[in-house]
Every structure is written in structure tokens, then in C-alpha cells.
Amino acid sequence: xxxxxxxxxxxxxxxxxxxxxxxxxxxxxxxxxxxxxxxxxxxxxxxxxxxxxxxxxxxxxxxxxxxxxxxxxxxxxxxxxxxxxxxxxxxxxxxxxxxxxxxxxxxxxxxxxxxxxxxxxxxxxxxxxxxxxxxxxxxxxxxxxxxxxxxxxxxxxxxxxxxxxxxxxxxxxxxxxxxxxxxxxxxxxxxxxxxxxxxxxxxxxxxxxxxxxxxxxxxxxxxxxxxxxxxxxxxxxxxxxxxxxxxxxxxxxxxxxxxxxxxxxxxxxxxxxxxxxxxxxxxxxxxxxxxxxxxxxxxxxxxxxxxxxxxxxxxxxxxxxxxxxxxxxxxxxxxxxxxxxxxxxxxxxxxxxxxxxxxxxxxxxxxxxxxxxxxxxxxxxxxxxxxxxxxxxxxxxxxxxxxxxxxxxxxxxxxxxxxxxxxxxxxxxx
Length: 430
Known about the structure:
Blueprint: E1 4-7, E2 10-13, E3 57-64, E4 72-77, E5 88-93, E6 100-103, E7 112-117, E8 122-127, E9 135-140, E10 146-154, E11 160-168, E12 174-175, E13 179-183, E14 189-194, E15 209-212, E16 217-221, E17 232-237, E18 242-248, E19 261-266, E20 273-277, E21 281-286, E22 293-299, E23 311-313, E24 317-322, E25 327-332, E26 340-346, E27 351-358, E28 364-371, E29 376-382, E30 389-391, E31 405-406, E32 420-427
Antiparallel strand pairs: 1-2, 3-4, 3-32, 4-5, 6-7, 7-8, 8-9, 10-11, 11-12, 11-13, 13-14, 15-16, 16-17, 17-18, 19-20, 20-21, 21-22, 23-24, 24-25, 25-26, 27-28, 28-29, 29-30, 29-31
């Protein structure tokens, strides 16, 4: 099936799909192995000190602030020697307002980035091969009976592994628990597996994921985007997407560290997985091939009404957003059983950092968030030798009184649509 979808004068060309577009009103996370020195994939780069800034652009996925206009991708110049440094170069509106949510954390080699609009149940394929002129390559929604995709991981064969939060019954109705689906690069489903274990916990909703190819395993977390902070982690066999185990995390001293399993990440050894929770716990998984277990190895401070969110992982360091501290905190995970804080970057006192992503082959981290950070995009610099973090003071608009690019503006290259709320953000590869 092919065709055109028109909204507000914007024409969007769909890729052929194997199912009918499913839309309902109610994000992309990459879990590749933490990189070693000099590597350029997977969300980390382990070279010591200042590794340079290979990225030329920052791509920021943003929602219209009041929800009345289209989600869009903004292209921001991050070349320090450019006359348009820290300026929005162009924008691409996708023609639908579905709450721009997660993108992938690292730009794929193909140059086509997945960007999720979760409320609409849609994921857009945005082509950045023309760096300053992105275009819409297609979009997808349901994968057969599964719908509302959330997070994505690129597999070695070029396909996409995705979590889908929900599943529909044949003939109507909705089974709340979704599953894990392998898609081809255009979003067509190839195979799938259900995450449902109703006898154990009917509130499981696949959230994020992490493939462990060396062990033929995938780890998924289970928090519901509707707000249920589930404590379960699931382990699958990668080769056939069969669910092998469901592990319910145990609480720590505060009694809540286990709630809201969030982001699993594969460490540099290719076998160890750490899992963060929205309640600021950090758990190590063991025995993935047999009977998986989970142990709390670190806990960040909690702040009521906020959630610890996304990490960035290098070969040696785990960098985490900690709203209670209005900070990014660096842990040395050389011994993943005993992470040790080695540095932190404290932001302004009402800033709530949420999304972070590391520049491939470089040392910059992009930051978006809520409260004082709402509508703003910041850059920080990571020292790969020490783990120290420093705010990129030079990354600011002309005449601005503080660092960052503010997306609370009236006009954009795509029209006068008003202030925007950034969420996912990723650097270009060059």
C-alpha cells in the first residue's frame, strides 16, 4: 500500500506497509555495547580527554507546546567555527501532533533516524543524508496485532528490534500487554513475541530494550507509558524472540528503588547488563543464559514528582540524569558490582534533566528536560579520562544571557507554530 497523507499543506509519503495504519490518542533508545577507545558506535566513545567534535549538527525532535500543530525535527548547527553556531538551521514538520517522544540515541549508519510520537502510536523514519535538509522517508504504527511502539535497537543484520506496549485482540478490544517485534528497515514486521505473563503481573508493558548478541539474549523493561511503574525485567532469546524469564526487582533500603524499570544497557564486556529504574535504582543482571537474577548496585537520590531517566554509557563511565540533584552524575563502572561517583554537573536549581545522548566519536552530551529546562537544549562536555562534566558555555544563541538554545519561540522555518517542547535529540555522525 502506498499513498499520501496531507495535513496543514504538508505532504508525507508513506513507505509500503504490511498492515493498515492504526492511530489512537492515548519514544528510541539504543542499547549497543559501551564503546572502547576510538570507536564510533553504540552511544559511547572511550578516548581520553578532549576527543574533538566530529558532529556538525544536532537533530532535536520536538512537539508543539500546546499540541495544536505538528511535531517536527529541528536541525541545530553545532560547529563551533560556523557563523550559524547554536542556531536552528531548518525544521521538518511531519504533519501530525502525536507528542514527539524518543528518537534513537545514535544516528544509524543509514542516516535514517527513527523518531517516535507515542500518543499517536506512530514512528517516523527521517532521512538525514542531506544534513541540512532532512526529509520524511516513511512512517509506521502497528505491527500486526501489536501497537504503540516505544523503543528501538538496530540489529547486526540491519533490522530493527522494537518494544510495543500494547496488543489488540482479533476482532477488537485490546490486550494490555504488548511484546517484542523485529521489523525490517522500513517498519514491516518480520516476527514477534508476547511479553504477557498474566499469572505473574498483568501490568507489564514492554518499555525499553537491550540486545546481548553474545549470549543470544534480549533484555526488556516493563514500565507503562500510562504511568504504572512496573518493577519487572524480562529476558528473551534473541534468535526466536521467545520469552525466557521475568525477573521482579527487589526494593532497596528506601523500599522503592525497584519501581519503574527504565533503561537497560550492555556494558563493554558484551555480557553484563545494568538496568536503571525511574525510581533511581541501578540493578545488575546476572546469569542471563540460565536463571537471571538482579541485584541493586547503586541508588541515586529521589525527588517526589520527578524520575531518574536516561543514561549515557561509555566503556568506563555511566552518566545518569538525577532530577533530585538537578544534575548529571558520572559513575565509574569499572567494577559494575560497586559503581563509584566520580563527577557531576549541577544545572540551575529548577532544571529537571531527562534526555541525554552522547556525540559519536566526540565528547559532547545533549540535554533536554522539564521544569526550568522545558523548551531548552543544552550541551555538556565529558572528559573520557576522568568522567568530569562541564557545561558548554559557548553553546548559546546570540545575545542570550545563559547557555543553551531556547525553542520557546513564535516562528520556525516551517511556519508560525509557536513554542516547542524538545525531547529526543541526537548528533549527526559528521
